[in-house]
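Dear colleague,

Following up on yesterday's call, I've attached the two folding results inline so they're easy to grep. Please treat them as preliminary; we haven't cross-checked anything against experimental data yet. The first protein's sequence and structure tokens come first.
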Amino acid sequence: MNCYVLLPFMLGIPLLWPCLGATENSQTKKVQQPVGSHLRVKRGWVWNQFFVPEEMNTTSHHVGRLRSDLDNGNNSFQYKLLGAGAGSTFIIDERTGDIYAIEKLDREERSLYILRAQVIDITTGRAVEPESEFVIKVSDINDNEPKFLDEPYEAIVPEMSPEGTLVIQVTASDADDPSSGNNARLLYSLLQGQPYFSVEPTTGVIRISSKMDRELQDEYWVIIQAKDMIGQPGALSGTTSVLIKLSDVNDNKPIFKESLYRLTVSESAPTGTSIGTIMAYDNDIGENAEMDYSIEEDDSQTFDIITNHETQEGIVILKKKVNFEHQNHYGIRAKVKNHHVDKQLMKYHTEASTTFIKIQVEDVDEPPLFLLPYYIFEIFEETPQGSFVGVVSATDPDNRKSPIRYSITRSKVFNIDDNGTITTTNSLDREISAWYNLSITATEKYNIEQISSIPVYVQVLNINDHAPEFSQYYESYVCENAGSGQGLFF
């Protein structure tokens, strides 16, 4: 059996196509194989491939030539092309066996076509050679730019991270043939983000190249470019944006807004009263900005500070009652520190911020104050009206020292003057009443609502103002003619 020879062309270079239907005894036309052709052996056949560049803009591109060595050029043979793509993508000149691509090919859509070739003797209508498959491979050109796969990119990295810290890896893909030169070999570069970031050229790994402070800038936009053909001239490129946010670390200690606070407290305020707030600020956020306030210096131990963890304010409270007349001003020192500090960040918190607080005690109009909590006086009975009993004394504890007016509640026996002197208004009889319980009231003349009262006890002392008396009337009897010394009868 005879064979036919396909003489393909790629960019004008003739290639060897295998003999179809050749046997051991067949005579095969020998054609020198050019360097670079692709050959493989299958069932004793020598196979070759056609190569067609993708994206050719010509309406008819010559692929190669199919020819039997029995074809003597008398146009008695007819060449046929069968299989997927025959007639639509590829056509054959039935007389010459020349194969043409009639539409633009895209390797990324389809990289090879498997077709069948057949040669028919027109005079007999019979096949000169049996059908045989061959391959047309679409060769790649660099017509696809790199594209990033997982956009949008976003990463979070702690502020003050050291140089070389991994941030994120971006990856681009190139639809071109990775086995075709450098068409799909990518090189990454940084278009925006210097000097804080760098990118590894071959991996797309973004790393920190300079420390950053979140309090100065909390996020950065980085633009990464991927170029194919390892960045050589004519390379195509694609870009992506990466949003890099800095998370907070506790690298700032809280600092008081004011170096001096002035507060006031009423001397009538009960213990536990809130008398004012102090405030520190911290450039950190969240847990790193939580504070604890405390008293650093208070010799009187009169005040305390608690922390409002919702507002991060320090609340100054009264721990002991104050008295304007005893001490009308105080000075205390407060300090503040963070609640949570990691050991490796203690270098930022070596010295706590402090502030001084001046507290002024406000005077309150207080009621008169007696010198004693109660008084006990003694007086003999039967003393004349107006006799002296005793003296009580009360003073205004406030600075204005209001005069005091005294009075006795519901008593018809005693009287008291504006000097606090108690006298009798009637003669006293111990045998009628040995004790008197009085209530003395002191009232400020400048403010009659300021009143104080104390108890006064008056004991009436006995005098010998009564002759003895028999408890009953006695009637006695004596006999007449009774002698001296004789007893009487009752």
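Below is the second protein, in the same order (sequence, then structure):
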Amino acid sequence: MLEGKAMVEDSDMLVKMQVQAMSLASQALDIFDVVDCKSIAGHIKKEFDERYGSGWQCVVGSNFGCFFTHSKGTFIYFQLETLKFLIFKGASTP
């Protein structure tokens, strides 16, 4: 429904993964109410864990702040309609 209206604000993911992230976000918005950010994020995280291995994190909302360390090539931050989406795979620091 909302595909093609996403705007990537920052990313270091491969384009194929970026497209997958935005497609999953659109799919989640078709399944869940737009105010149910927790379920939307859970859906996207579950799909990324299944497709790309465990350890993915997803934050969805219209107003949030964060500070994190991510594995190289696993970060995307984009907007779709009124929501912002942050998806990344966590990294440990020595």
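For the second protein, one point worth flagging: The chain has one domain: 7-90.

Best wishes,
A.L.
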